[in-house]
Amino acid sequence: MGLMLRWLAGVGVVLGALYATVSRPRSAPAEPEPDPGQQRVYQLSAHQRRAVRIWSALAARDSAKARLATLSLRTGRPEIITVGFVGAASSPEAQKVVGDRWTAVGAPDSSVLTLVMIYNEAQFDSLRSQVYPYSGALLVPGSANDVCVAMTPGSRSAHGDIDVVSSQLDRALAPCLLRAAFGIPGRGMRDWLERTRAAAAKSNAWLRRQDRAVLDGSGQLPWEPMYEQVTTGRSETGLSSLLRSLAAFEIAVMTAPPYQMGSAALRCLEGNTVACTRTVLDSFPLHESLSGDLTLSHSWEFGLRNRRNALLSVHPIGDWFLSDIIRLEGRERFGRFWRSDQPFELAFREAFGRDLGEWTRDWGVRQRRGSWEAQFTPVKPVTLGVSLHPSWALLTLGWTAAALLLAAWTARRRQVT
Amino acid sequence: MSRLVLGVSLLVLAAPASAQVAAAWRDSAYRLSAEVQRVRDSLRQDDSQIEEIARRSGLVVSATSEYRAFAEEVLERFDAARRRWFGSVLPAATGFRITLRSGESWSFGRQTSRPHSLSITGLPDSDEAFRFAPPVPDRTLSDAGRATGELLGEYGNLMLVSAPAAIRGWLRAGLLLSLDEDSRRERAMYSLVTGAGKAQRECVRGNAGACAHALGIRRWEDPDAGGEYYPLVRADLLLAALEQGGEGAWARLMAEAEGSIEEGLAAAAGMPADSMLLRWRDGLLELQPDRGPLDLPAAAVILGWSALILGAGLGIARWG
Description:
The complex is a heterodimer.
Chain A: H1 2-22, H2 36-70, E1 79-83, H3 92-105, E2 112-120, H4 122-125, E3 136-140, E4 146-156, E5 162-164, H5 166-182, H6 187-196, H7 205-208, H8 238-245, H9 248-255, H10 263-270, H11 273-281, H12 321-329, H13 331-339, H14 344-352, H15 356-369, H16 372-376, H17 390-413
Parallel strand pairs in A: 1-2, 2-4
Antiparallel strand pairs in A: 3-4, 4-5
Helix pairs in contact in A: 3-5, 10-11, 10-15, 11-15, 12-13, 13-14
Chain B: H1 2-14, H2 22-45, E1 51-56, E2 59-63, H3 68-86, E3 96-101, E4 106-108, E5 111-113, E6 116-122, E7 131-132, E8 135-136, H4 144-161, H5 165-171, H6 181-194, H7 198-205, H8 208-214, H9 231-245, H10 249-255, H11 261-269, H12 273-285, H13 296-316
Parallel strand pairs in B: 2-3
Antiparallel strand pairs in B: 1-2, 3-6, 4-5, 6-7, 6-8
Helix pairs in contact in B: 3-4, 7-8, 8-12, 9-11, 10-11
């Protein structure tokens, strides 16, 4: 009877401890509701920023088209024009970037004409909306020549020159440089560029870095991370507090697969080449329908971040993807790929003799290993699904049986008085 | 209900911009901007917890209950500091209001924060009045010096809006009033004495023309003149000129709207530019440390302690 009571007391203590650890407090404080007034300000501000972004893009497009109607463009190094500045102005910085890039291209293709336009960003700053005005390229197909206009905002410096952000200008030039180097793209490439707004063609590293061993992308992950913004935290329970004190959150982040790149990228990194192809072909689900002749400015500005379906959607592939194809496969073969009229995937196979998905997987794995994330957390190969090997189950059962037999054998040897 | 109102208002405000027409999006952006401002203002003015604490000429200070005593101290410091550089000139003709407001807690991931706001608003409270209300961390409103620095920083930005364009462009980084004065002057002194360019070295030796070049005020006729000082040094020079000029310095600077940087600085200081430059240089050089990092008494103390520790160590050690 005494033994029974002790057993019951022991079981009661264990269950009580479990309940105290796992259960949520009955009167958990409710999550604070965001102030409706502030919430309204946030939402209105988000809409305002979106309106300024699209306004700047369309205004730049209108200015460029108006200037194209009066200008006669020549092949070779592009002319740089300024729009919206009072008095004569030039941008030595822009001239240097444009000069360097076109020197690196060599003899540009005569079927494509290029113009560089710097517009005054002051009017978009007047609303204090903290938005980068549009910087990208306008693509105008013509009967004799295609025209590519690289457009970027600028501001007048204290010395009277026009300041531009060089990296922004460089990205805006990228689609035009590809056309200058390789001519008018074939149907497959053109369709893909239009569908993705040339978002993966924003790097000119292929003109600067010939060394194939050097990784481009500045340590970014190969597929753009998209986070769900959290502004209100949940109230802590006994369990969550315990987990936090054990730094379980950090451990989970370090050991989990890289979810932030999305499920398609995860499957690709695991070795699913169909998923890899999908991350290239079905990438960039645009939320804002800008005019089709404009390239994407900043993917993170155009509504791609903070999506509820961030894990399931296909994330944008690194904007240096096309540049890396040129660097790794060579200009000549890339030229054949660029000009091919075959669908994108088929053209890739014909030009490089490899499957697009397979190539993308190798590229993604290498990029991930060289990313900043890899500097701080061990980058293990991605493993998805059930990872329990059948032999583990047998081993577990075997060891359990051995432990039971040992316990039973010990019990039999005990003398009961 | 509020969601419904918000949805309808967004529909009304953003609807005309559905087409690919720049003007429609511009109008939409302006309408949304006005609406954001209106909602913000109504939130600010409906705050019943805020009470007026004190008044000076053209200056009203309000605060939420927990900051009432603190606000009075900040007001004293702020008012004294702004008068040193700007005299009685105000950023708004009818004055302005400073508000210290406690914020609500919010969480981002694992971090919980309680940003407060420290706002400067033009008077009277109307849609046209300027306003600036940056959220500030808790620690800013727990230290009167820090809160005053923050306010001065924003106040300096507001004053600069009406400054001559040449001066605004020349400053590059603004007046940097949010920096503690000792810290700003020390950094300026360090930049002055460690500048390696030819003009910078000549400036330290007392050549006003070289100083003017190294500060981006006037070109020096020397092809090897070298580079210029950091923007912080320029801000320090302007503040020194305003201080030298006394009560009417800022007003005189404003009167030089069309003049050059040199003319503006000279007008503010109330003396020829070269004299002002040399006086500023002398002031900074006076801040140089006048003794080495280690003096004799300190060396003696170090040696004494070392000997004592060594002696004690030898005393307790066994030598066999």
